[in-house]
């Protein structure tokens, strides 16, 4: 089998796990573990009480597509991919730095750091949040959405399978629930310390999340944002809105991934104070 055909074969295996009906959860586990070998992955999973668990680390997820997208190629490649897409390798992270993860999902971003950090994970989906609590222990976890205002009830369009749930109405959502939201300003006011990094993946609601960060924005050194084609039913990018907002508040775009449309912004005021 030549190289091109091998890559096509691996894609076929992945698509099988994603789209072919597999009625029994244990069949999915069998095929997942078998196909993982073709990705040179040491990852194995098992199923117990409505959740899938990775053999190492002690990590869990609930949904079939999430497993394929995030873990089929191995947890190390997942961490490396997240670190690269959000430019963690460009930052000097120190012990006890405060990291805020907006749109934490299962908590994978937490694994990107090889030092002890003070982690704040915000995840609005009730199902996914339970995985976050299992995966990330002894940290600060919040089952709310991030928004431009603090709301007691706001519509949330659930699409957990691919990690695509959003406050902005999306296509082919599973159902609508009501969630509570919090502004970044309100969260940072409670933390009462400087923030090293905020990572934002709001599935299209990045501009609203950023507008909730105004009074306390000078306490933040770096912001890394997923601005890809995810906003609303038309699946628009949020690059222009996010960039204009942050640049108007003295943040400079210092790294940009064109393929993923992720950007790393640095607070110029913090930079000037250190120079």
Characterization of this structure:
- The chain is of the alpha/beta class and about 280 residues long.
- Helices cover about 30% and strands about 25% of the residues.
- The chain has two domains: about 5-75, no CATH class; about 80-275, Vaccinia Virus protein VP39 (Rossmann fold).
- A seven-stranded mixed beta sheet has the order 6-5-4-11-12-14-13, sandwiched between helices. It has a three-stranded antiparallel beta sheet with strand order 1-2-3.
- The N and C termini lie far apart (about 55 Å).
- The model is unreliable at about 270-275 (pLDDT under 50).
Give the topology, please:
Layout: H1 3-19, H2 25-36, E1 45-48, E2 51-54, E3 59-61, H3 64-71, H4 75-85, E4 98-102, E5 118-122, H5 126-135, E6 140-142, E7 145-146, E8 154-158, E9 175-179, E10 181-182, H6 184-191, E11 195-200, H7 206-211, E12 220-226, H8 239-247, E13 251-257, E14 262-267, H9 268-274
Parallel strand pairs: 4-5, 4-11, 5-6, 7-10, 11-12
Antiparallel strand pairs: 1-2, 2-3, 8-9, 12-14, 13-14
